[in-house]
Amino acid sequence: MLILKPQILLALAAVGASLVSTCWGAIYEHVADLPGLKYDFVIVGGGTAGLVVAERLTENPNFSVLVLEAGVSNEGVIESTIPFLVNELLAPNIYEWNYTTTPQTGLNDRSLAYLRAHMLGGCSSHNLMVYTRGSKDDFDRYAHLTGDPGWSWNRIFPYFLKNEKWTPPADFHDTTGQYNPLVHSTHGMNPVSLNGYAWPVGPRIVTATQQLPHDFPFNLDMNSGKPLGVGWLQSTIGGGKRSSSASSYLAPFISRKNLHVLLHAQVTRLVNPSHTNGKLIFGGVEFVQPGSSPFTAQAAKEIILSAGTVGTPNILMHSGVGSATALNALGIPVLLDLPSVGQNVSDHVSVGLSWSVNSTETLESITQNTTAFNEAFLQWNQTHTGPFVELGITHVGYLRLDPHSEIFQEFPDPSAGPNTAHIEMIFSAGFSRTSPTTPRGHFMNIGTVMVTPISRGTITLNSSNPLDPPLINPQYLTSDFDIFVLRDALNRAQKFVTAPVWKDYIIAPTVNIANFTSDELDQFIRTNAGTISHLVGSAGMSAPSAPYGVVNPDLLVKGAARLSIIDASVLPIVPSAPHTGRNIRYRREGSGPGESEVVLSLDLQRTRVISTITIVCLPMSPPLNLRPYAIMAI
User: Fold this and answer.
1) 130 is in an annotated binding site
2) Disulfide check for 411: which of 132, 194, 435, 481 has CB 3.0–4.6 Å away?
3) pLDDT tens track for 443-500
4) How does 140-149 read in b/e, with b if 16+ C-beta sit within 10 Å?
5) How far apart are CA 49 and CA 372, in angstroms?
6) Where would one find the signal peptide in this protein (predicted)?
7) Side-chain-side CA neighbours of residue 357 (13 Å)
């Protein structure tokens, strides 16, 4: 892990002041500074999804919107702005909720740090910026599961384009043969680009795909809906800087008089319940600021939960929405019995391999050399070029298991279809950036990720106190299928480095697993595997007639009115790629005369959305009558 020296910190602090935006008209730190506590819409969470929702709604000047963000501002946080410094955000700090999982039996009873952003922009402000859409099959499966064809790839694809603003890489190199411009757009909101710094390992990876084409075919563009193969990384970076929901959807619009964002506002529960036509309605949102008594923000039209896969079910359950049995056990009055709240969560699991290499042009040439680090930082500060414009990942690959693998005699294939990977491979120009320690030397790394898990976990309450963190129990690697996939993935990584191109480059593996028995390899995985925090499903959507699920395909909470969920928690199955660039199509039919015209005109303007890391960007609708479209990213 990169350790910043004191002189580097001083340099960062000096430059941080120059990055602070002057657009602070509607961002508040103290509730007393708000113009009031009554709004048309209250959005819980100023993260990847919430800020997109806020921007879309406030396009209509007649709608007043309050965003309640528990964390801090992203303004001036250079560790977020500068891609290379992302690891500094991931340690325990004020930019994190600092969650941990429960002890995981599948990981030898280890508890893992579970990364959740605690700042404006959410995970789009502190993820690894990998931009992937997933497979066509992923979305077609969502359409099948919900009974709503609007979730299909063909219906979603135009909204990827409305979201994305394809941007030249920071070094303006010739990108011919590195992506397919036909599946991208230059007219959207959120910048996306190819790598802007040429690490020497990159061309070797392409050569390896040519030397081992059967096992590792080259894919011109993984974001075409057919991601299988190995291709150049695309990132949510523009002009050498991170692009996030905060930079793309909040900063340009913060001067709108109907948009209000309150920081340091942790929502505890939804309040003022009533019933209309048999539907539960909450009239307000209770929140606290540090050291304060609770406040209530009233929502005249709708409450939108965008608190994420951990935060959203936590708020629902403390509000009396969840399993009646579990809520009764904690003495929480039950207002709506929805047993699926906090259940059926799924996540990706990763483990990697590193090799020492015969090169001095690796990440370690910067992270282990204070002079080089300062020079690279100065270059970025002056020109937004150089190694700081990215984080050292050069390529990403997606692979399927052998269809004749013996594991399919025991388990049905959990992937969404033939264009969907079981394995993701992440190629880096150095030792794993997420490792707590880095040995001296120069390295390359292949991170492998199991992206089609069968294991399912839960988010449950720790107590009846809404300020206590919930119990996060993903139940990693509790299925034999999942451990099989990671075992196969590591073997694939080893095969990749047998290509002739590596003969004069790779010196030795940092851990030699070549002679491990199957049991030894399983133990290596359970001892070293971790998460890249792509949890979904805790408020999963299902068909309107389904007796399970939390939201309908329109993202309205089942059994409730004027309450929507717009974040990664609604995805019933984790997609087969990082959630960056994930799409959601979200519509709601008009209901009242006169209202629908206003809403539909807004709908036409709200079809752009953000993509980022860690999931989810969705525009939200006005109450009761709009069926808007939205795009989600993780």
Assistant:
1) yes
2) 481
3) 999 999 999 999 999 999 999 999 999 999 999 999 999 999 999 999 999 999 999 9
4) bbbbebbebe
5) 37
6) 1-25
7) 26
Q: Is 131 left (phi over 0), alpha (psi -120 to 50) or beta?
A: beta
**Residue 578: HSE in the Cβ half-sphere, 13 Å Cα cutoff:** 31
Q: Which residues of 188-213 are buried (b: 16+ CB within 10 A; e: fewer)?
A: bbbbbbbbbbebebbebbbebbeebe
d(CA 347, CA 96): 19
Nearest to 357 by CA among 507, 511, 512, 495: 507
User: Rg of the chain over CA atoms, in angstroms?
Assistant: 23
Amino acid occupying residue 414: P
Residue 152 in tokens: 């299909």
The answer to which of 14-23, 74-83, 482-491 has the lowest mean pLDDT is 14-23
Comparing CA positions, the residue from 392, 488, 479, 475 lying closest to residue 449 is 488
Q: Are 259 and 120 in contact (CB under 8 A)?
A: no
The sign of the CA dihedral 161, 164, 168, 169 is negative
Contact 309, 567 (CB under 8 A): yes
Specify the pLDDT at position 437: 67
Q: What is the CATH number of domain 198-238+349-452+477-528?
A: 3.30.560.10
User: Are residues 612 and 250 in contact, defined by beta-carbon separation less than 8 angstroms?
Assistant: no
Known binding residue 128? Answer is: yes
Which of the listed CATH numbers 3.50.50.60, 3.60.20.10, 3.40.50.720, 3.40.50.1240 matches domain 6-77+246-345+537-631?
3.50.50.60
Q: Return the domain boundaries, the chain.
A: 6-77+246-345+537-631, 198-238+349-452+477-528
**Residue 55 pLDDT exceeds 60:** yes
Tens of pLDDT, residue by residue over 210-258, are 999 999 999 999 999 999 999 999 999 999 999 999 999 999 999 999 9
Residues 285-294 have a mean pLDDT of 97
